[in-house]
Amino acid sequence: MVQRVNRTAFGIALLAFVLSSLMSARGSEKQGKGRSLRVGLSQALFRGSDPRSILSLMQPLAELFSAQTGIACEFSVVADPLDIGRALEAGHLSLGIMHGIDYAWIREQCAEVRPLLLCANETIALKAYILVRQDSPYRNILDLKGKSIAFPRRSLNHCYLYTHKVISEAGENPAAFFAASPEPANIDQALDWVFENQVACTVVDGVSYETYRQRKPGRAKALRILHESGYYPTAAILYNPKKLPEDVREKVYLGLSTAHERFGGRQLLTLWRLSAFVPPPPEYEALLMNVLKEHPRPIIPAAFIADGAPAGQ
Fold this sequence. Notes:
The chain is α/β, with parallel strands linked by helices.
């Protein structure tokens, strides 16, 4: 079976494209000559995708970057975020990209690693909601055991983690907690299916839910929040100030942080559900601490939808 590259994977490809094209626009050929920018991508960013497919996607972008700037750009997919942190500390990687949740988990062991920029989608504080119909009989997560769920494969990482947490804290095994269910094409369809009583529930991120409420207020009013998460930190572009040359750091920072100011950059950012690359604000620290409070140890979310054909399919 051919594995599909998810939206996050293409979002990282977008980041690579913006990195290559915008840095080259600053006429950096002379300054970058002979340097190599090594970027480690956390495999968790590409849930359900083959790392070889991701690297194939990155290769043309790396070659474009090298040709236009004189800085060789090499991407690698790393299974363990902690390995990215250690490689940044040792200077074996120039940049690392991982979920903010993973950065919170590795930070104590990789004290020299810092966030350079954050991947924002209107906000850097993410939420997750478990939603049911307003008139449904469901009152807590236990009522949904064995029921159907609309869960897009391209859902954000914190939605997986939060669902795993809610089920575990209710004393249940998250694995195959929900019945085999049809897979919606996107979050809008997932919410529509709950409204239309095609499935019992869905899990969506806060920005997508707010967008749905604005676009379809009538349908949104017919939905009810069953469980609501706290705030999660968004994905981070990490570096080691002691290892990354200052002029290279500045070019990366300026190229990405101004991407939204250019028409082409805005189009690409919007396409992949990003609004801008932003510097970490003071409240980012509190978001990282909240991860350790809610999820003290790193976990890999279970496959909480049972295998098999959905009922009635």
